[in-house]
Batch of 3 targets.
Target 1
Amino acid sequence: MKVAATRTMTYTTVGGSDQQKLTIRVGVPYLLQDGDVDFAFTPGTAGCAVVYEGLEEANVGDVYGADEVQAIELAVAGIDSNLGRLRNKYEFYFESGEPYSEAE
């Protein structure tokens, strides 16, 4: 995967103190080709991979949009949503140690 953006964070289980590293990588958007997906799409439809290294249960796979710009917009917006879904189990922090408030 060719990477467009990376975010490095740490996380703990709620109430825990053992910090784990989490690296989130957003791939460069790509145009879909026949056989890439199992749904119908129009020319110009794009995908964007999002990979969560260090927290397997966070991985959701590729995100798709009407074009490359929308694919990357949805991929980036989905990070906050995805981490928010896990906040009852984990606490997330920027590398600075500040809480990752977007996940709230």
Note: Residues 3-103 form one domain.
Target 2
Amino acid sequence: MIGYTTVGSNDLPKAWAYYDELLASINAVRIMEMDYFVMWGTGADKPMFAVTKPNDGNEATVGNGVMIALSMESVEQVQAFHAKALSLGSADEGAPGHRGDTFYGSYFRDLDGNKLCAFTITA
């Protein structure tokens, strides 16, 4: 159902470089680029992720309670993605681990403070 999600940034070159490296770790590539907007994806039939300047011209801020969850293929991929995010300067918001019986996830904030989750469902 979700086609894409977008977060704002006040330093687009820095944010784009961060996401280029982070999302490359799950084989996502830039699929759309403009002066104020970049979108990454892993396939035309998959949800996409974008970073942009806010359209209203105001400063980008973090939405309280807003989080974007990125689906991973395995526990190992969740762990590697979380480690990659931290190595790129992300703030840790929750180490990889089970939350409930089958949900395995990790949480971090990007360079602009947006909260993301990397997760997989285990058997």
Note: The chain has one domain: 4-53+66-121.
Target 3
Amino acid sequence: MTKADLIKAVAERSGLDRRRATRAVEAILDTMKNAIAGDGGVQLVGFGTFAARARAARKGRDPKTGAEIEIPARRVVAFRAGKELRQAVAARR
């Protein structure tokens, strides 16, 4: 599902016109991005939790030369699925 597909689905399910659905989806995504980028996270009960985590520096290999390189520490986004989402995915086997 793309962002355009999501906007279309929100418009259809909520009865909003496409312009208002677009603003609603973009507002939600922007709010989530700001919360995750800050020190907080986003917890949607039943769906899952988005949070930023620290990833330590590590050694890796340059695939072209095979030389060992240092991969710097950084923050990455992590998602942990909620119970209802896990069950819904498992039921679709």
Note: Residues 19 and 63 are 46 Å apart (CA to CA).
